[in-house]
Amino acid sequence: MSNTHSKKMGKVSNHSSAMLGYNKDLIRVLGEIQEPYIIFSVEDQVGAFFHDAQELFSLPPKYKDYTLDELVEILNVENLSDLLKEVWRTNGSKEVLINSADFESLSMKLVPLKSTMSVLMILSDRTYDDYEDEDFTVREQRFLNLIANFHGVAYRCQNDEDWTMEFISEGIYALTGYKPEEIRGNRLLSYNDLIHPDDRDIVKERVDEGIREHRQFTIEYRIIAKNGDVKWVWEQGVAVYNEEGTLTNLEGLINDITTQKEAVTALRDSEEKFKRLATQSPLAIYTTDANGDCNYVNPQWLSLAGMEIEDALGKGWIEAIHPDDREYISDMWYKSVNSRGKWGYEFRFKSKQGDIYWLYGTAAPVFNEHGDLISYLGTNIDITERKKAQLSVIKSEMKYRRLVQNSPDIAYIFSVKKGARFWANKIRDILGFEPDEMLRDPMAWVNAIHPDDQPMVYDLLENLKAGDTWDLEYRIYDAWNNIHWIRDRAFSVVEEGDDLVVEGLAADITRQKESEQELIRAKEKAEESDRLKSAFLANMSHEIRTPLNSIIGFSDLLVNTEISDEKAKQFMQLINSSGEQLLRIISDIIDISKIESNQLKILHSWMELNEVMIMHFESHKESNLYKSKDQVELKLTLPYNAQKLNLYTDPGRLKQILANLISNAIKYTDKGVVEVGYTLEQIGEKQRVRIFVKDTGVGIPENQQELIFERFCQLDKGYAQGTGLGLSITKGLVELLGGEITVQSDLNKGSCFSFTLPVPEISQQTKGTTSKMDASSEKIFDDRLIYIAEDDKNSLVYLEEILGSTSLEISYVNNGRELLELVHQRLPDAILLDINMPEINGLEVTQRIRREGIRIPIIAQTAHAMSEEQDRILNAGCTDYIAKPFTKDELIRKLKSVLT
Questions:
Q1: In terms of pLDDT, which residue wins out, 43 or 460?
Q2: Pick from 514, 520, 440: which is nearest to 482 by CA?
Q3: Is 284 exposed, middle or buried (0-12, 13-18, 19+ CB in 10 A)?
Q4: 366 and 378 Cβ atoms separated by less than 8 Å
């Protein structure tokens, strides 16, 4: 550092003024410092740089706060932080050489500035020490001593019995009432005369100790002012030596601390008063230091905690807290201390004896005049009884709350003025609304009511009176916009002035309402069904009696009237046609009964679709119905790419469906075309067939197109005829086969019925076909023996008439026992077996024959044409079956099939 730097005068900045609290006397003295200096706050922050300190350390021109660590790095001073703390703690100055290659001639002097809570560092360049004149050194040392002790009265005196003053500042007048010139040189009186007689010895002793130990001395003592007032002063001084080491004088600073002493006394009195009050207080009282560690508890606190006072101090009080509350309360306490905030919590004490107390603890921070936190004052109030009462109320409330929350209905409280105030959680389960969300919008419930029902609810609320009750049913939308029926039962009470509050239960009666509607619909449907059934029975009576009239009438004519052969043949044809019609009616009744009871079974097998379609086409072309329609053309349309299309379905039921649809189309078409066919449809990766029957007949009105598939339903009188079962059976059969049926129709233009069937993946493969036998060949009957078991005489006569013209050898029996005896005598080539026979029925006879290992063909004849009956027959061991009634051709075909 250059000499220019060391001699350069500087000024104290506004920044330093703010830091030093505008202590004008101290700022004026600092402005006279000729060396670079730095001021530190007690928090170890660099407060301000003055004069050439910035330039010396290559610092930026702006005043900027630097941490102690940054300054240590610049100056390379070991343990600078500890040095600053030591100077502040001991209240003594200290000089240290800086150990830095860049500043090897630099030294620093640390001086505490008690009045500003800071430390002054003066940097000195010792390179030119040998060239400094004595006056400068003396002046500099004197100045440093003044700075080190500046606080009130500055002095320089001799070390004699009277402390003869060589210099004393103007502050002595304010302190004692004496002017400086009255005391300087003991002109009027010595300074020793001002010292209280009781304190003169201690002052002498402390000064001598400082001189002897070459350190500053600090003393508190009393003086007597000119007006006789006794004042307390604080003095800090130091002995001054010349170059030879001889003590020349004493220099120091004296401050008036009377106010502080009085405050300490008052504080001590206050503390005593506090302790007396705390001891007698019914509250548990405690105090802590600024760190939150306990330093006092009163007897009531100890009594609640069951602890000794030495165990409660520091952090020992935590042990008094119940283990379940200990960690939480401890954390909350020290968080409040760190934030310098108030504290208040409920918690439990658990004494060493096991007693548990509920407490409400509070604490408030205590600050000194500088705003520094110095302690906490707190109380613990025993709230055990109140807590028990609270817990009892809470338990009771929880009990009823559980009842409310577990109720199947939605409990609520609703203010007529303010809207909803409480919703039970059940509202979430029933309607999907969150209770909290509903409370944020108090009118949400009313707004969710169906618009058609809102006026009723608004009218009720508007006209509500205290004590009113109601029982309403209305509709409301849930969170997903679905409609619910609500039964709302409530009563009203007056609360909070004139506000009416409604308390009630809202039950979800949606299912009940739906059940009521279903019952109403079921009742209406049952009434309609009864009406339809009545109409059906009346119609059925007509339908059955009509063919029976023909059968009985023409049969009577044949028996009792002489008629020609031609006439007899005509009558027989009419009897046969009426019998077929009656059989269809009976079959329809059985089928609809099976479909309704879900007992109709489907027997799947492979079949070639084209073969079935051609067979039905040819069959209907030969029917009397078609032959009677001379202006109707029957047309077959088959796709060219599906000649070998095989379906896995029930061939019998498919034939029944086709027969119904084709017969209806011909029946209701008087002119034009009836077209039968099918097309193939691709649905994704799967294929299906759509079979259709089109006509140019009378058509079906649009408003009746859905009705035609209903049971017992017939269209308008004069339009349709029959039992009203055909299309209903057809629809049921199509659905059982895995398809669906539709109709498209225009009145007086015609109709198109179509239904779909699934096509298996291997349907295109050609299935094995059976060889067609020559039905006209009679050679297979030569030398063949068959047994016929039949207990009905009319059926037996019919069989003898049919088979009498063949070359078959036939034996007849009328019960199962006789048949078994016959089989044991001689095995036939086939057996024609009636199922319902006396003694031993046909199925049991078959089972016995099969158990004996006899494998001859057995054809069962039965009046039960149901699929499950057919299964039972085949499972018993029969080779085939034939359903009554049957024709001659059907029986001959069956016999030839088993004998081939």
A1: 460
A2: 514
A3: buried
A4: no
Amino acid at 334: Y
Task: Report the amino acid identity of residue 223.
Answer: I
pLDDT digits (tens, 9 = 90+) for 742-794: 999 998 899 999 999 998 876 444 443 333 444 444 578 888 999 999 888 87
Alpha helices in 463-598 (DSSP H): 510-560, 565-596
Secondary structure class of 759 (helix, strand, coil)? strand
Answer left, alpha or beta for residue 828, where phi above 0 means left and psi between -120 and 50 means alpha: beta
| CA–CA separation, 580 and 547 (whole Å) | 9
Encode 638-678 in three state secondary structure: CCCCCCCCEEEECHHHHHHHHHHHHHHHHHCCCCEEEEEEE
CA–CA dist 897, 900 (Å, integer): 6
In the chain, the amino acid numbered 888 is: K
List, in order, residues 6 or more apart from 468 with CB less than 8 Å away.
Answer: 491, 492
Q: In what order do the strands lie in the sheet with 469-477?
A: 419-423, 410-415, 499-508, 483-495, 469-477
Three-class DSSP category at 138 = helix
Q: Are strands 469-477 and 419-423 parallel, antiparallel or unpaired?
A: unpaired
Neighbours of 1 (CB within 10 A): 19
Tokens of 567: 């006439």
Locate 603 and state its tokens: 């027997």
Which CA distances in Å does 138 have to 127, 308, 354, 633? 18, 61, 74, 148
Alpha-carbon span 446 to 460, nearest angstrom: 12
How crowded is the C-beta side of 649, counted as CA atoms within 13 Å?
Answer: 29
Cα distances (Å, whole numbers) of residue 52 to 121, 137, 781: 13, 21, 144
What residues contact residue 640 under an 8 Å CB cut-off, 6+ apart?
none
CA distance 633 to 628: 12
CB crowding 58-69: b at 16 or more within 10 Å, else e: ebeeebeebeee
- How many Å apart are CA 181 and CA 169, to the nearest integer? 10
Compute the distance between CA of residue 803 and CA of residue 798 in angstroms, rounded to an integer: 9
pLDDT digits (tens, 9 = 90+) for 397-436: 666 566 666 778 888 888 888 888 888 888 888 899 998 8
SS3 at position 44 = coil
Residues 6+ apart with CB under 8 A from 54: 60, 61
Beta pairing class for 284-289 and 153-157: unpaired
| Angle of helix 510-560 versus helix 565-596 axis, rounded to 10 | 160
Measured CA to CA in angstroms, residue 849 lies from 845, 852, 858 at distances of 6, 5, 10
The separation between CA 759 and the C-alpha centre of its own chain, rounded to angstroms, equals: 47
The pair phi, psi for residue 213, each rounded to 5°, is -100, 5
Residue 198: pLDDT band (50, 70, 90) is very high
Gap between the Cα atoms of 110 and 38, Å rounded: 10
Q: What counts of helices (H) and strands (E) characterise the chain?
A: 31, 32
Residue position matching structure tokens 């004042």: 231
Q: Is the pLDDT of residue 28 over 60?
A: no
pLDDT tens per residue across span 719-737: 445 556 778 888 888 988 8
- Which residue is listed with tokens 């010792």? 126
Pair 252, 271: CB distance under 8 Å: no
- pTM (two decimals): 0.36
What sign results for the dihedral spanned by CA atoms 817, 822, 825, 828? negative
Identity of the highest mean pLDDT range in 448-457, 600-609, 855-864 = 448-457
Helix locations, 759-815, DSSP H? 793-803
Rounded CA gap, 240 and 234, in Å? 20
pLDDT tens track for 37-55? 777 765 555 555 554 455 5
Higher pLDDT, 226 or 719: 226
Burial class (CB in 10 A: 0-12, 13-18, 19+), 566: exposed
